[in-house]
Amino acid sequence: MPGMNGYQATRMISKEEATKHIPVIMCTTKGQETDKVWGMRQGAKAYLVKPVKPEDLLSQIKALG
After folding, report:
1. Model pTM score
2. What's residue 1's pLDDT?
3. At 39, phi and psi to the nearest 5?
4. Residue 6: which H helix or E strand, with range?
5. Positive or negative, the Cα torsion across 32, 51, 5, 40?
6. CATH of range 6-64; options 3.40.50.2300, 3.30.365.10, 3.10.20.600, 1.10.260.40
7. Bridge-partner residues for 55, per DSSP?
8. Does the structure show a pLDDT above 70 at 65?
9. Running DSSP on this structure, what letter comes out for residue 23?
10. pLDDT tens, 2-47?
């Protein structure tokens, strides 16, 4: 993503009035616990580490619904 990283994009989506209602599921290669904590602090509703299993993604989507 030119110009911003995933954490910055998540923070922007989560804070903007027009988009803050959209739940963000981060799918990333960053698998450290500190990465997950940081992602959640930026506004992510779920955090998955790649490679993402389809059933894990579907489970997270259902949990948000």
Report:
1. 0.89
2. 66
3. -60, -40
4. helix 6-15
5. negative
6. 3.40.50.2300
7. none
8. yes
9. -
10. 899 999 999 999 999 999 999 999 999 999 999 999 999 999 999 9
